[in-house]
């Protein structure tokens, strides 16, 4: 066993009934499960250890950190189980669905709504950064609504383990690196700043419905990202506030040293003030 606190397979099937698949990633799937004694529903992320080969020590470290994470906008890790081939992360079940699905279903969407989502993401990321954790895989699919209700908070579902996945996660395994910061693509050393870049990409998408960097050809996409080559195209951005554009331009900043930190982003008027407009942008 690679995790100090990992429990064995006999334990997991004794405790939980595994039910349908809720989602899947490159090396893992997330299953609905029910606690046999309390009937409580949870989400269990099942990871093939094979995908983490050679990184067991790193994983052990990471799991020690994951156990410490307690934040209202990050899905809680409740328990860990392990077999020789699989790792099971038991998480609190969230039921509100993915961020973009929900936005598409809504008749009305405003800058204020987007600002509210981004503030919660920044709060969570700031917390992670204070713990010394770089998330590295922030994207809309990893942002879930806690409940189906209108006033539901947002939670980050995919915490940290991304670092453990195959190196190829960047170039091959995960498809297009639409959210990946320039310094990551150029294989320079990177830090917390990559998460702020991703928040910039997510903010951009929330406001116009398409990504800032896009090309069917990966090489061309890389070039766009490395040069931070994007635009606030007309007519899509015509009605978006200057404040929103200012906010995004500080996040989609090529030089990580000049890029906003979480603290700076949280203090920007588009997040902390009343600069985000209440006009429908759908
Ligand atoms: P991966 O590393 O495979 O991307 P994620 O943690 O992002 O794993 O989960 C994949 C999908 O599973 C999510 O996009 C979501 O649809 C679903 N999911 C993940 N965690 C939960 C959860 N706690 N509750 C409900 N659904 C979840
Ligand atoms: Mg994910």
TrEMBL record:
Taxonomic superkingdom: Eukaryota
Signal peptide: none
GO molecular-function term, one example from the UniProt record: ATP binding
Keyword terms of this UniProt record: ATP-binding, Kinase, Nucleotide-binding, Serine/threonine-protein kinase, Transferase
Binding site for ATP: 53
Domain Protein kinase: 16-271
Family: Belongs to the protein kinase superfamily.
Protein name: Pregnancy up-regulated nonubiquitous CaM kinase
Organism of provenance: Lepisosteus oculatus
Lineage: Eukaryota, Metazoa, Chordata, Craniata, Vertebrata
Covered residues, full protein: 3 to 284 of 334
């Amino acid at each position: 066993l690679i995790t100090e606190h990992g429990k064995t397979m006999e334990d997991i099937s004794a405790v939980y009934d595994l039910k349908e698949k809720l989602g899947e990633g490159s090396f893992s799937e997330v299953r609905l499960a029910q606690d046999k004694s309390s009937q409580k529903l949870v989400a269990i992320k099942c990871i093939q250890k094979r995908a983490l080969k050679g990184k067991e020590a790193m994983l052990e470290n990471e799991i020690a950190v994951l156990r410490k994470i307690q934040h209202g906008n990050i899905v809680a890790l409740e328990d860990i189980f392990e077999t020789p081939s699989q790792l099971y992360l038991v998480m609190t079940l969230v039921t509100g669905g993915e961020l973009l699905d929900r936005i598409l279903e809504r008749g009305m969407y405003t800058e204020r709504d987007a600002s509210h989502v981004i503030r919660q993401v920044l709060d969570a990321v700031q917390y992670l950064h204070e713990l010394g954790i770089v998330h590295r895989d922030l994207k809309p699919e990893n942002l879930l609504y806690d409940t189906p209700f209108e006033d539901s908070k947002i939670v980050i579902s995919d915490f940290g383990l991304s670092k453990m996945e195959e190196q190829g996660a960047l170039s091959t395994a995960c498809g297009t690196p639409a959210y990946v910061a320039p310094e990551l693509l150029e294989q320079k050393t990177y830090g917390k700043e990559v998460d702020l870049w991703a928040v910039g990409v997510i903010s951009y998408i929330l406001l116009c419905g398409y990504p800032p960097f896009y090309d069917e050809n990966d090489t061309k996409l890389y070039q766009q990202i490395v040069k931070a080559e994007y635009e606030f195209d007309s007519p899509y951005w015509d009605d978006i506030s200057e404040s929103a554009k200012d906010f995004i331009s500080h996040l989609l900043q090529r030089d990580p040293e000049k890029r906003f930190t979480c603290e700076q982003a949280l203090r920007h008027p588009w997040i902390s003030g009343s600069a985000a407009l209440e006009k429908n942008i759908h």
